[in-house]
Amino acid sequence: MTATNPHLDLVGGATAPPTGRRPARRSPYRAAETRRKWFEIIGLTTPAVIVYVMFVLVPMGFAFYYSLFRWRGVGPPTDYVGFDNYVLAFQDPIFLDALRNNAIIVFGSLLIQGPVALGVALLLNRTFRGRTLFRLLAFVPYVLAEVTVGIMWKLLLSDAGTVNALLQSLGMGGLVQAWLADLDLVIWTLLFVLTWKYVGFAIILLLAGLSNVPQELNEAAAIDGASWWQTQRHITLPLLGPTIRIWMFLSMIGSLQAFDIIWVTSVPAVRSLGASATMATYMVDNGFFARLWGYGNAVAVILFVISFVAALIFQRFLLRRDIQGAVTGRAK
Amino acid sequence: MAIKRRASSVLALSITTALLVAGCGGGGESEAPSQDELFKNPVTLTWWHNASQDGPGKTYWEKVAKDFNTLHPTVTINVEGIETNQLQRTRLPAALLSSDPPDIFQSWGGGEIREQVEADYLKDLTEQAKDEVANIGSAAEIWQVDGKQYGLPYRMGIEGIWYNKDMFQRAGIAAPPTTLDELNDTVNKLKAINVIPIAVGAGDKWPAAHWWYNFALRACSIDTLKKASTDLTFDDPCFVKAGQDLKAFIDTKPFQNNFIATPGQNDPTSANGLLANGKAAMELMGDWNKGTLDTVAADKEALNKFIGWFPVPAIAGSPGDPKAALGGGDGFACAKNAPPECVEFLKYIVSPEVQKGYAETGTGLPVAKGAEAGVADPALKSILDATTGATYVQLWLDTAFGSTIGNAMNDAIVAIFAGNGTPEKVVEAMKAAARK
To answer: Measured between alpha carbons, how far is B292 from B145 in angstroms, rounded to an integer?
Structure first.
């Protein structure tokens, strides 16, 4: 029965069965064991905690501190302005454009990648000749470096690039577009590139999840006369739930922080007009290129708060069952 | 991930800031050291320059460092080439906040050097490099703050229009245009032979912004521009006029299609690529363009045959000086607490001999008198003549006004190019950025 445990973890292994609480007994032996346990916990976690505090918590604190200053990175910050930088950000139409673009990427990724990845994963989960090859091909874009993908699509989608040339020669000249120059189109072009890049990740996650769906259930369904579709709908999908939810979570956080492919594929002018900016590219453009370090830090804090709140809400309402005991409290 | 990366660099900065504050006690005013103090004790200098790509520029700096060490064995120089944007936007500001900046580093002059001097980062070279500054002449002013010299340029040139002589001939254009009306006429003739009249790398923002700078240079008096650079006030109506003139010019459709996404240089789809590979007839660009055109040209020999250069045309009846030009350069500065040998090395870099060698690499125009013989390329020679003949050289406006105003100004100009900006908004953006 262990294989039917619905608490699937990230890449498919079954989680350990929950351990029942032992009744507390006070004896010298127990006390020594408790001491040893704490010694182990402290000894093993200290290095990680130090690194985490030094490189995550402390910098976050400093980012917030600097965000309260009007500071251009020359000399120590002295010009305290309170929350002015935050107000300025929400008054800048380009930042609002960046927020809109992030929303497009978050929901676009979920709505397009999810169904596509699920369909492909279900297909690739059947046995057929060349299955390994197809699995590999589906995953290749995800393995490529972001910058490589960005430059590749930038060249393919340029005015005289392969995509337009292909459309021309196929007699679809009417579809030729300024993919990266049309200010209304560019964010959708980028969404396509992002989808192409990351759908492989969703597929591999779902395939891992599928391998954990016990064959016995499928066989039982087959004996009951269920069709392939019915099996997928009533057995596979429900058991894939945890995997799908964790993918949604990762996809959402990744989309909120989208940076590298957009930075490389879309030129500075198009970004600065708001057509392709995201919160992260806006932060770098303003923090480093306009040398507004205090302001850039304020944008970084906003980006962090949005990601953090989104993560909390998602965990609270959707991931609750999957991570019970690990984050939300003790398992009963 | 972006947050974490950003945050950790902020951490590094904050630690170094603390160190800086702690280590700020020492170090008095620097004066010219006596001759017998120099080159007595062994010193190691760290040198950050922006010739990061393998090529003649990088090789030449390595040779210069080695030669200096042979000349003065007590001085060892560690050279590091860093990509310009990384160097200027992140590495250098972070290092300057720390207690251990590089001794000698790239300096772009203008608004940036003013900020660096105000933060007390730089060594005053006025006394020690008196003779060299005199030999360089007015170009050295860009690296001056309140009459004191804080950096020395090694490259300086004005911008103009690089053009394809063959196309001009085919279109029946007898001589390069000298006025805006003639330029408009040239554009029409080039359209008639079905080539792109002017390539512009608006995707990178600054190549587009430089068109506005030139219209501002023609619309504004030199005094207005000088005052704008120091006071950062932009109330003169000439700045709005520059945008109106630019808008009128863009409306004549002289540029390639979808220029808003065309990069400036470095790849075949860029504006550089269009000119170098015979697709466009003209491009507004600085003196470094020869080198960058070379790298994207499919046929270098053909490029060398057809490429020519002429100054930016004058506008009839405008208050600006028709002989004034926009330009800029590259220089080096020494950190506040660098040893005096650092200044000696700077002086060595701008000595006529080393400058001549620099000119021979073909990567830019030298600034020191006596190095002119190193310029062999005919297009570069015409720039050198025009630079010498210019009545006034205005530093690139984004450099002159500093990164913050420069960036806001360029963004607003690009909006005009994209068709959703206005001349007034450019000035508003500049004023708003001055307050940021």
So the answer is: 31
